[in-house]
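Two records follow; treat each independently.
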Amino acid sequence: MGPRPGPGEALCALSDLADPGARGFVFGGEGARFSGFIVRRGGVVRGYVDACPHVGAPLALTRDGFLTRDGDLIICATHGALFRLQDGLCVAGPCVNRTLQPWPVQVRDGKIWTA
């Protein structure tokens, strides 16, 4: 997975993340990197490692393209797997009943932080 940021790293302002919305983050460089993303729906923000449980590939083809058109599910652009925002559970596609790996984040003082 590479250099996962430790607790207390500011990711962005809550107001910079659409509702519903998603944003991807990459830490580290060549060879040693960590990719994660955050999703927001209502007042809830969750973080996940950017790796599909089916083959480990990144979920999005674009930096922030993690959600379906209506913003109610996370989608894997490679195989079309669909995941619930609230817990990362796959509800359709080749990895049904498997989950995305959580990336702990929290909202504090109007910003989203690693936890």
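The next record belongs to a different protein.
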Amino acid sequence: MGRFVHSISHDVQVELVGREVDHLSGVLRRLEASAELQSGSQEAWEATTLCASAAEKIYTGCERVMAMLAARADGAKIDKNETWHKSLLDRMRLPFRERRAIVSEETYALLDRIRSFRHRERNTYGFDLDTEIVLIRANEAVQAYNRFAAEILHFFDALG
């Protein structure tokens, strides 16, 4: 078990580097310090598009980690049907076989909002997104990532 834990833990830590989160956090700090964005302006479009894309990428990175854990730690891949994204997230929230839940209910709720948002972000143009909601989801993506990374590392610590 020790070699397996070390191997998957290393792969997960590579995925959890967090550069996207650091960049998004910096953008959000600058946006909070600046004047209010005018709806329909170039600046609003840039902020909306950038923050929506970054939140989507953050969730996708977390999802890669969850898929890795489902395949390698659980030994059971998630079937990639129309609901696989939700099924994968549900798998992390619940105990599976002999392992405990990997993410808490609070982290699950944050990740689930970002998962839902990601679908909308992928299927709209920047002006179709509400800047205020995008900024809320971007802040939640940062929170979700930080909680997720901490809980994943705690999960590995508990395995030894």
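Discussion point: The CA atoms of residues 19 and 135 lie 18 Å apart. How would you locate this feature using only the token line?
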